[in-house]
Amino acid sequence: METYYGRVRTPHDAIKLFEACRQGILPRVLRRLSEQERRRAIRPGSVFVWDEREAGMRRWTDGMPWSPSRVSGSFLTYRELEGKGRGEKAGGLIKQSFSITTSAGQHLHLISYYHHHARPQADLPLPLPLPTTDPRLKIRPALM
Known about the structure:
It comes from Diplogelasinospora grovesii. This protein is α+β, with helices and mostly antiparallel strands. The protein contains 3 helices and 6 strands, in the order βααβαββββ. It has a 6-stranded antiparallel β-sheet.
């Protein structure tokens, strides 16, 4: 159900994913995820892209408690909380959001999840792929 598995670090990464969806290389989310789908689909590296009109949703809901948003460059960033109104969850996810409106009036949204590791550790999995360096996405974004 996810659009992409990787790490979105820059607006260029996000735009590359929007363009890959426009070209049919990657799938867009077409509806809200059920609770069961959320539990299975949301993991570090999950990226979801949708068009507001096509999916019939303006906001992403995942049923998880999040901190208030913080602006981090061009993204809104949220940190997973232990519970509603409680402290930050140790080892919790970070969620980032990016949205654009195209010249054709499409409202496109991207949500990505990842873990932040303050220092490299030998037992961590390999780094997540980046859309801008992923060989499967050798496309030139028309949206830029």
